[in-house]
Design goal:
This protein has about 280 residues and is of the alpha/beta class. Helices cover about 30% and strands about 20% of the residues. It is built from 7 helices and 11 strands. The protein has helices spanning about 1-25, 45-55, 75-85, 105-115, 135-145, 175-185, 210-220, and strands at about 60-70, 95, 125, 150-155, 155-160, 190-195, 225-230, 235-240, 245-250, 255-265, 265-275. It has a 6-stranded mixed β-sheet, with no helix packed on it. Strands 3-2-1-10-11 form a 5-stranded mixed β-sheet. The N and C termini lie far apart (about 60 Å).
Length: about 280
């Protein structure tokens, strides 16, 4: 009897392992630090921007978007956010403003991408400090795209940039001021500019030696409408250097809040903190 039980246990173990090898190996994670697998998406920002332009309503001047940050493992709250945002009848796109992951892991970003794929509108992702942990930068760049990028929608330019200074040991590369200078250099066809980045300059995770130069190039720019940040898990608004440009910080997904924003040409006409 004992031999039969042992034989049956060994038999089923072999069958189970064989099943994993032949049927499940494609879904096995070989290392928590791997950068991609055969099921991980890539270039999501480029694909979502392409979709945004395809869906664009050229008869409507208003740009409507939602900005939310710090999703880190808040899977249930993120799923609820998708349901709430999908109720908006007129919405152009959603910004995921950093910290999509907590530990910079592939599986974290894959899960969040699957959640946000449920949005009816395109979504655009910006890198956060937690997305740079371990191999997170490589995962993010493959799955979503560049750390610094911009796009023009209707007549507004969105400048999405990496301000996670601490993760680069305050080596003066983040924010990339030369790149920002070039992006803000002009364009007669652009009515307004909006900046999006994760870490706000008020945070100690932003290089304070670069703060004044960073804020000055924004508040002194005649077309700059607003700068949006996340990271600190609370909503606030400030006007650095007593300028006219608001620096608006969104609350975190884990706190079940997001920002709803409307822009028309050269005017920020509405921004609302929404609790859900």
């Amino acid at each position: 009897m004992c031999r039969f039980v042992m034989f049956r246990a060994v038999y089923f173990s072999v069958v189970f392992l064989t099943f994993l090898v032949f049927y499940g190996c494609g879904r096995l994670e070989y290392s928590p630090n791997q950068i991609f697998d055969k099921y991980s998406p890539r270039d999501l920002n480029a694909k979502n921007l392409s979709r945004l332009y395809e869906l664009q309503d050229t008869t409507d001047d208003t740009i409507r978007f939602v900005l939310t940050g710090d999703t880190q493992r808040a899977y249930d709250q993120a799923a609820r956010l998708v349901k709430v945002v999908n109720r908006y009848e007129k919405l152009d796109f959603v910004f995921l403003n950093g910290d999509i992951s907590d530990f910079g892991l592939l599986q974290e970003m894959k899960i969040m991408a699957e959640v946000y794929d449920g949005l009816k509108v395109p979504y655009i992702s910006i890198i956060g400090n937690h997305d740079l942990v371990a191999n997170g930068q490589a995962v993010f760049e493959r799955m979503f795209g560049a750390r610094n990028f911009s796009f023009i929608y209707k007549d507004v330019k969105f400048v999405c940039h990496d301000t996670n200074s601490r993760e680069y040991h305050f080596d003066k590369t983040a924010p990339d001021l030369p790149w920002l200078t070039q992006e803000l250099a002009g364009g007669a066809d652009i009515a307004g500019i909006i900046g999006i980045s994760h870490v706000p300059p008020v945070s100690d995770d932003f290089d304070q030696d670069m703060r004044q130069a960073y804020e000055s190039m924004i508040v002194d720019h005649p077309k700059y409408l607003a700068n949006f940040h996340s990271h600190v898990n609370s909503h606030s608004i400030s006007y650095p250097q007593n300028g006219a440009v608001p620096f608006i910080i969104s609350n975190a997904v884990i706190n079940s809040e997001f920002l709803y924003v409307e822009v028309i040409h050269d005017k920020l006409v509405r921004y609302e903190n929404v609790a859900y």
